[in-house]
Amino acid sequence: MSSPTSQNHAGSRTTLLIVRDRPSAGGGIYNYYQAIGKYQGTAPQYTDVGRSYSFYGTHGDKKVSSTPARLFFDSLALFTKILKVRPKVVLVNPSMDPPSFRSLRRDALNVLIGRMFGRKVVVFWRGWDVSAVGLPEFPGGNKSLLARIYKMAASHIVLGERFKADLLRWEFDSPIHVETTVVPDECLAATPEPLGPEKLRTNLLYLSRVEIAKGVFELLEAYQILKQKNPAYTLTIAGDGPDLEALKARAQEMGLADISFPGYLSGAAKVEAYRRGGVFCFLSYTEGMPNAVLEALAMGLPVVSSDAGGLQDILRDGENGFVLLPQHDAPLKKKFDPIAVANAIERLVETPELHERISTINWRYARQRFAAPVVARRLDAICLGALSTETARSQNPSKAATPIGVK
């Protein structure tokens, strides 16, 4: 499936071939490249991989459902694309996804195909399940075939310092760059200045995939507490996912009939949901770097969030909102204390000056760090750096900046 970006670059010399998830395979990776593609100077081309899911909006493409057949056709597409466009660099986007490590194994084949053609390969590590953080060895062992394949890469990109620490522990000696995801242009354009004190703070918003591991069931418990104290609170849970119907049923059981479930949102509808929101709530157990949180920051929303994945590097408790730590030994749907979540939200809502200050901090920080042109330049620099004739096996990462205050 070709994109407008790839068509625009069709007549130019291609430096970069990106192996990304197809539109319906997960959303975040595909949307990242859609957002930055027009700003990249590396004339990117794309080939799509991965499963399709029915709950990622209406822009899904139909592919064979058999995993072996899909792997064969996706690999053949990559093979053919390299022959056709002759890129200098192949960029793959695996996830560290135990227990099956499906994406890890799939993209190992893509790394091999890139190296077979003598291309430099950059590995951009996306999802990184919390159960993989801190493992003593790479899945299968540091000397396993799988590890050796990924160590062929000219460089690696991760979405958090904790993930970089894992790669170093696993004896990866190529340069490791710590990066972020991106805020699309429409979110930045929709808020040309920080939000003012007139913002309706009691409108709570969740916007992402709807599944247990995103902490949405704990969010219901916190909302019930808040609603009993102040009927003005509203909650919008925007998105689709495998646990949406179960979440709706649970809300009904709890008597929370006023929750809005608009489904999967994109474009202007998504921007409008952020615009109406007062506090963004995101209690995910495990992440790479969630686009939704960055979008919320760009729209000037204070956040009540977990520290999952790369969020640990970009969110400061009390400065961007409030960061809550999960109870990892607690059962599913009980990882976060609903009273603590409710208290954090209430503090933002009931303290207008705090809400306004944090809104301004987030609005400014997102533009400095996560705007598409800025992210595109950083990614280009990493990919072009992989072409260097020097085999620099040193650790000089490009680090994601920490949040900054208002000056």
Structure, described:
The protein has 407 residues and is an alpha/beta fold. The protein contains 15 helices and twelve strands. The protein has helices at residues 4-8, 28-36, 67-85, 102-116, 145-150, 161-169, 185-190, 216-229, 244-253, 267-276, 291-298, 311-314, 338-350, 352-369, 372-385, and strands at 16-21, 45-49, 89-92, 120-124, 155-158, 176-178, 203-207, 234-238, 260-263, 279-282, 303-305, 321-323. A six-stranded parallel beta sheet has the order 2-1-3-4-5-6, sandwiched between helices. A six-stranded parallel beta sheet has the order 9-8-7-10-11-12, with helices on both faces. Helix 11 packs across helix 14. The radius of gyration is 21 Å and the shape is globular. It starts with a helix and ends in a 22-residue tail after the last helix. 49% of the residues are buried.
Describe the protein's topology.
Elements: H1 4-8, E1 16-21, H2 28-36, E2 45-49, H3 67-85, E3 89-92, H4 102-116, E4 120-124, H5 145-150, E5 155-158, H6 161-169, E6 176-178, H7 185-190, E7 203-207, H8 216-229, E8 234-238, H9 244-253, E9 260-263, H10 267-276, E10 279-282, H11 291-298, E11 303-305, H12 311-314, E12 321-323, H13 338-350, H14 352-369, H15 372-385
Parallel strand pairs: 1-2, 1-3, 3-4, 4-5, 5-6, 7-8, 7-10, 8-9, 10-11, 11-12
Helix pairs in contact: 3-4, 8-13, 11-14
Characteristic terms for this protein:
6-stranded parallel sheet; alpha/beta; 407 residues
Physical arrangement of strands within the biggest beta sheet: 2-1-3-4-5-6
Strand-residue proportion: 5-15%
What portion of residues is helical?
A: 25-40%
- Describe the biggest sheet? 6 strands, parallel
Write the H/E string, N to C. HEHEHEHEHEHEHEHEHEHEHEHEHHH
Unreliable stretches: 1-12, 391-407
Spatial shape = globular
* Helix vs. strand class: alpha/beta
Mean pLDDT: 88
Estimated radius of gyration: 21 Å
The number of helical segments is 15
Euclidean distance between termini CA atoms:
45 Å
Number of beta strands: 12
